[in-house]
Predict the structure.
Amino acid sequence: MPVSQDPLNGLYIGAHGLYTSEVIHLRRKFGQWKEDNGTKEPSNLEFYEYVEALKLTGDPYVPAGQVAFRAKIGKRYQLPHKGIIPEEFGVVARYKGQGRLAEPGFRNPRWVDGELVILDGKYIKGGPVVGFVYWAPEYHFLVFFNRLRLQG
């Protein structure tokens, strides 16, 4: 089965530090995303294309089945390519988004500002590569995700 060439659809694996990793299902959607209380975000019924990363493997903070991050995509929501990631990494696109953080046991989950970053995969082998920058008030961190290739 051929792997989709769309960097915003598919299975990805990412590393959090040296000892933990997670598998996410990145998928494009159209509509409005839901807030934690089950309501759609308040707006004037504006629909948009967005991508969300559903966690297939969890961790002590955010369990499997939860959305790890999300971002509105398309030219209207694209940020300038210059940012915190060095130019030689091959940034293809950046989009403003939200990342999910929580205390251990998924207590007090919250959304923090962030950025979805798409790289061309030339610097890091096996591209395309997707990254997400979490802009938490107390700290910032970046997680890279490589496309997961499963043999059938």
The beta strands are 10-16, 20-31, 48-55, 67-72, 78-79, 91-103, 107-119, 129-135, 140-147.
